[in-house]
Amino acid sequence: MTNLKFVWEFFGPDSKKLAQHHLEHLNEFLKKENINSSESGVSFESDNFSYSYTILDESLLEVIKTSLKPHKAFRL
Fold it and tell me: Which of 8, 46, 57, 65 is the most exposed place for a label (fewest CB within 10 A)?
């Protein structure tokens, strides 16, 4: 089983709040679609750059790509 880390990036002075807010909606979507994430969260890289993420099985790539349009995805 290969996992992918899906990332949504936010820039600017409000990036921290935007990433946290996006995570709330991301978790709502995962719950609604009955998708189990091994990990979801936010990362605050600087005052002007933050991102939200979730780690899911590679089999969910098309569903996530089509429905949520992540900015990046990394194979773990």
Answer: 46
Tokens of 76: 């773990």
Q: What is the pTM of this model?
A: 0.94
Element (H, E) at 14: none
73 vs 37: CA distance, rounded Å: 14
Query: Could you tell me the domains of the chain?
Result: 3-75 (3.30.70)
**Count of C-beta atoms within a 10 Å radius of residue 19:** 23
**pLDDT digit string, tens, across residues 14-31:** 999 999 999 999 999 999
CA distance 36 to 39: 9
**Cα 10 to chain centroid, rounded:** 11
